[in-house]
Amino acid sequence: FAGGLSGVAFGADVPLLSRVTQGCQPVGATYHITAAQDNVVLQLDGQPALEVLLDTLKVSLDGDPQEAVQRVRHTLAGLMDADGASQAGRTGHFGTDTRVRHIIGLDGARHGVALADHVEPGMRLAFCQRNAAAARADLVRICAEIREELEPQELEPVPQPARADADMAPVYGALGAVQQPRPGRHIAGAIYVSCSGRGGPHFGAPGAELQIVRHALGDVPLVGFFAGGEIAHQHLYGYTGVLTVFCADE
Q1: Residue 6: inside a domain, yes or no?
Q2: Could you tell me if residue 52 is inside a domain?
Q3: 190 class by beta-carbon count within 10 Å (0-12 exposed, 13-18 middle, 19+ buried)
């Protein structure tokens, strides 16, 4: 026996909502992959992929390549299927159609960029980097979207708490007035799965992501864990958070 999967399956009669929040932000344009082999991107919009990457990062391999190598090590690639949407959201994040993958090598002979995933011509690619501010703002966004979808006419703004941790101040500011539920559909519980690359220092403190979710959703049962890959919709993501809430009527 090799491989396997364990989990919990819920029936169609269990009402739930799920949202994906991205942890990386595009650093350049979105390109079409026009030539590729296995996991190596050879051309982007007809140009050598390695040259496009270096131009995006404004570095060169000529002379001392160390600066370029360091910049590449901090860069990832967002992959999108040919029929997916490529537009970034209002917080500068990728959409749920984007799968972030590591750059695992540079092919100097073919001027290609090797990724930790299979690529094909027709797919789209945008180079990206981790961005803590964008990740926090996008996590707040998905929490607000869930609240609005559950209770579109039943939300009543109330002032934010008088005291707020310094690390959380930008989050409270982005959220603005906290929306507290009034009678109607409510959240019976929530599960938050976050990439291990997002937790701790990336958000400023251990458990900071759960604090953000707790503040946005209110006093509801909430559990979560870190993962090496997050499953949502039909994709395996990286550097994301997946929030699922269970709904119930009053």
Answers
A1: no
A2: yes
A3: buried
